[in-house]
Amino acid sequence: MPALARLPALIATLLCFALTPSLAKSAPWYKSDREVLPEYQLHKEHKEAKVLYDIGMAYIVANKVDQDFERAQYWLTLAAEQGSILAMYRLGRILSLIEPTPERTKEAIYWFEMAAAKGHELSMMSLAKLLERGELLDPDPEKALDYYMRATDVGNAKAYTEVGLYFMRGDVVVQDCEEARKWFELAGRLGDPKGYVYLAVLQSQGYGGDQDQNSANLHFEQAALMGDAYAQSILGIRLVLGYGNKSKLFKGLVWMRVAMLMGEDNATLFRVASRDLSEDNLELIEERAVECLLSDFKACPIIGGKPMTSVPAGQ
């Protein structure tokens, strides 16, 4: 076909791309949403991306409108295309969680990657989980680990735990429980109780270092004081059974009861361990457990009279 004959088609294609943004805004609800939603009226003097993001979020949280994920996706896409990092992240969440398909998952990965490239740590974590699970696409653990590592660079505590799990299991990397211990301890110090839990498990079994039941107890305790129900349950059982030192029945039963109040199913074990106690002692255990819970774990039984380290702020 001569070059001149192809020119009209080329011009039409270029015009199509040039008009795409305005055509995207011609959806039937575009104008009405902007006129009705208070978010637009409140922020109409701000940047366009902020306005579009707020409208999208209004449809997610059902703020003065009915919840509508299709409309939310529409508005968040417009905001993301204008560079809103939060919109990219929220869009990735919608695409990966609401009626997921392989195609929607690929699109979610795209938006998570866009936000992660701009340093958004929650997008890094969401992307790593998506790549790790591989529910609708082939899993990519190597790429997942890379994003977990990137998240550790910006101080994400849970990412440290995830990297530790890779070393503990030997996924992608050579299994190294000594290295895993280092990552788990850093995770705990940064505020993820699961880091202390996994560290305690390795210490109790002697993987990656000396077997040390006392240190395991102290790290389970740290996680328990940070509000981890599983750690509270295990700590209670260990204290009752005397792991690391002599049995501390009362403190163990208090922690078991705290875990039960947090939703852990310890009822049978608790009944067996407390079967010889008087009603007065059982009432005292209940009082201490409730006090511990209501104090946000600041007034809980401590193994050595005080926490091994201070409980991270906000935990």
Describe the structure.
With 315 residues, the protein is mainly α. The protein contains 17 helices and no strands. The protein has helices spanning 3-24, 30-36, 38-43, 48-61, 69-81, 85-97, 102-117, 121-133, 141-153, 157-169, 177-190, 193-205, 213-225, 229-241, 249-261, 267-273, 279-294. Helix 8 (121-133) runs antiparallel to helix 9. The N and C termini lie far apart (70 Å).
Query: Main sheet, how many strands, which sense, barrel?
Result: none
Share of helix among residues?
55-70%
Strand content: under 5%
User: What best-fitting shape do the alpha-carbon axes yield?
Assistant: globular
Oligomer: single chain
Mean pLDDT: 85
Distance between the termini: 70 Å
Tell how many strands the DSSP assignment holds. 0
What's the alpha carbon Rg, rounded to whole Å?
27 Å
Low-confidence stretches: 1-24, 306-315
- What's the helix-strand series? HHHHHHHHHHHHHHHHH
Q: How many helix segments?
A: 17
Q: In terms of structural class, how would the helical and strand content be classed?
A: mainly alpha
